[in-house]
Structures are given as C-alpha cells and as structure tokens.
C-alpha cells in the first residue's frame, strides 16, 4: 500500500513538514509495511519558500527587514536550484504569526519588509522572483512594499503617507518615477492562495480583516481605504485592479503587483505542486492525506487541501483531509475531490491548547483513520 501525505502547515502551530511527520507516524502505527510518501506543500503562504527550495535543491538566505508592526525581524528567502530564481514569502516579512494576537492591527500593519526582501533578491542578482502571498498581517494594498521599492504614495500636500492600511484614506497620488529600475527587467510570478478581489463582500478587508485584528467598523473603513487605493491607481496609472481575482491576496498586496509590475498571478498551490512533482508521486498511490489548520468555504478558493485533491481526483485516488478547525460550511470541499474530512481537535478546548496539542492530535486522528481504513479492507476481503 502506498499513501501520499501532502499537507500544508497548521498556522501558528506546526510546519507542513511537522504535520506530515505526525500523520505519517499515525499511519505507520497501523500499516507498518506501507510505503509512506511525505510531501509537505504550501499554497503561497508560509512554507512556500521551504517547499520550493527543498524540491529544487536550492539555497536559503535571511535578511533583517521591517516587520508588519514596524519592528525589525529576520526573514528567510531562497533561491531555487537554477541559482537565478528567487522565492519570497510575504508571510516571512509581513506575516500574521510575527505579531502577538493582542497587538494585531491591520490599520497600522505594513508590507515594507516584503519590499525589502525583494530588494535583497535583486541585489543578489535575481531577475525572476516567485512571491508567495498569504498569511499576512497587513491590509495596506502593498503600499509599504511599494515604498520600499522606491514608489511614493502622496497625500494632497505632496507628503508621503504613513504606514498601514488606514493611511490609504489620505492617498491622493502615486509617483512611480523613483521605482528601482531593475524591476522593469524582473519577471514576477505571484503565488496566490486565494482569488479574492480587492474590495467588496469577498474582498481583502471583509474576508481576512477580522483574523488580522479588525472589528466590524474597521473592516468597513479598511475596505474604503483599499477602494481609495484602487481609484488612485486607475487615475494615475490607468490600471483597473479592484475586481481582478487575486488582487485582494495578502491584504491587497496582489493588487500592488498587478498595478506596478509585469506580474502574473498564478495558483500558489499549483506552482508548488508542480515543483514537488506531485503528479509523479500520485502514480500507484492508494490514498492521499492532506490538510491545513482550518478548512472552510475559503478552502475551495485556492487553498492547499483542494489543490491537492484536484490532482488526486485526476489520478483516481481518494482523499482524506484533516484540519484543526472545520467550519459549518466546510461541506463545500466534498464537491472538489475531498472524500472525507476530519477535525483533529478531540473536544472543547482553548485555542492555545489546540495549538499546543496539534502534534499529538494529528497522530491520534491519523492512527484512527488508518485503523478504520484497515478495518474496511478486512471487511472487503471477507466479502470476497
């Protein structure tokens, strides 16, 4: 029996590699002779750099950059095996897990550090840059990133606006004349984990603002700020980005790339799965296990579990997904190739406890699934 284990990370708890290992131990306890293929993946959020560097035999680097709340953080980035392609995660420099829960505030959070990572890659000679969007603490439409790259975002008096999504309410014009000239010759491949537009009911603020610390009032204000950014981009640069799928990724960072670079937005999970050659690993596979920290209606909009399940579905392989949190609308994933879905949380627990116990909960759930799978095989054998 061959079992492919291809999960994403469980945000703020376990890396994708640690998740795969815990699931693997659970299956190994029941199927000691099974061939287990551990293939940790990502969808453009945290873990994307590690997955791509590992898959291609590349190299990891680090740089000190501006974190989402303005403090200096050490962020990793990498080059792929070809030595000329860089890979960067917005989460590494501007990520939600860099900010303690009580301090999260998208009104002030900035993507400047992501721009500083891009500058580090340019300085290292990269002219093809894969940027993973996802897991950000920000809602500034990539304003901080643009400022780090030499773009000026100005108010009515011609002064540079402050950091954060809230500062966009004062935006009057955008001057891109000072943008680093190397960017004109740089190919950007943007790995998105969502296809949300910039504003509106399914936009960056409404869908992702609450998990970044925004209450209902702030969500409306931030949505208006992103709308202002879109208006100024259209007026100053002739690009209408508001309704473009993926523009709302990473708090509008996708929109900044669309407006000011020759970027192509692609499914982050497809970029990673192609790099790790998941289709090759699916050959001869009997069962796929995938998962991520939360599975809900957003999962079908480009997240890892559905990305994996679509590849498995094409290969005719059944898929089971595990999650720390399963929402009431998670049944939507069954129409996208996920045959069964399980929460690993054993009962009512606090969020900190669930995060702390994720490894043991994954092991226990995987072992029980493996035991059920083995029982089904035994029953099938008896019928024959």
UniProtKB/TrEMBL annotation:
Pfam family for this entry, one: Gly_kinase
SUPFAM superfamilies membership: Glycerate kinase I
Source species, domain of life: Bacteria
Keyword set includes Manganese: no
UniProt keyword annotation of Transcription regulation present: no
GO function terms (MF aspect): glycerate kinase activity
UniProt keyword list: Kinase, Transferase
GO biological process: organic acid phosphorylation
Family from the record: Belongs to the glycerate kinase type-1 family.
Name of the molecule in the record: Glycerate kinase
Species for this entry: Marinobacterium aestuarii
């Amino acid at each position: 029996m061959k079992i492919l284990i291809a999960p994403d990370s469980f945000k703020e708890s376990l890396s994708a590699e640690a998740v795969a290992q815990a699931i693997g131990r659970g299956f190994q306890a029941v199927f000691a002779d099974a061939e287990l293929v551990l293939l940790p993946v990502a969808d453009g959020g945290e873990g994307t750099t590690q997955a791509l560097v590992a898959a291609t035999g590349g190299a990891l680097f680090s740089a000190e950059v501006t974190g989402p709340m303005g403090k200096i953080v050490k962020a990793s980035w990498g080059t792929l095996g070809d030595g000329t392609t860089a890979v960067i995660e917005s989460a590494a420099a501007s990520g939600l897990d860099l900010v303690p829960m009580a301090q999260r505030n998208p009104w002030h959070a900035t993507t400047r550090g992501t721009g500083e990572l891009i500058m580090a890659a340019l300085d290292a000679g990269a002219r093809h840059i894969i940027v993973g969007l996802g897991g950000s603490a920000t809602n500034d439409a990539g304003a901080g990133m643009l400022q780090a790259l030499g773009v000026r975002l100005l108010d009515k008096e011609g002064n540079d606006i402050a950091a954060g999504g809230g500062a966009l309410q004062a935006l009057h014009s955008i001057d891109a004349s000072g943008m680093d000239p190397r960017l004109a010759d740089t190919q950007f491949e943007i790995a998105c984990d969502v296809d949300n537009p910039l504003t509106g009911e399914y936009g960056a603020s409404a869908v992702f603002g609450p998990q970044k610390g925004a209450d209902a009032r702030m969500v409306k204000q931030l949505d208006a700020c992103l709308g202002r950014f879109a208006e100024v981009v259209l007026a100053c640069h002739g690009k209408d980005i508001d309704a473009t799928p993926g523009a709302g990724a990473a708090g509008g960072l996708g929109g900044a790339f669309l407006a000011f670079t020759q970027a192509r937005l692609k499914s982050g999970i497809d970029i990673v799965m192609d790099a790790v050659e998941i289709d090759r690993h699916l050959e001869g596979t009997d069962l796929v296990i995938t998962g991520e920290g939360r599975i809900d209606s957003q999962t079908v909009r480009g997240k890892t579990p559905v990305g994996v399940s679509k590849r498995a579905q094409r290969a005719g392989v059944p898929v089971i997904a595990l999650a720390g949190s399963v929402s009431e609308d998670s049944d939507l994933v069954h129409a996208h190739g996920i045959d069964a879905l399980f929460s690993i949380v054993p009962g009512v627990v606090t969020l900190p406890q669930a995060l702390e116990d994720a490894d043991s909960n994954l092991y226990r759930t995987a072992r029980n699934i493996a035991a059920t799978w083995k029982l089904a095989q035994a029953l099938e054998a008896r019928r024959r």
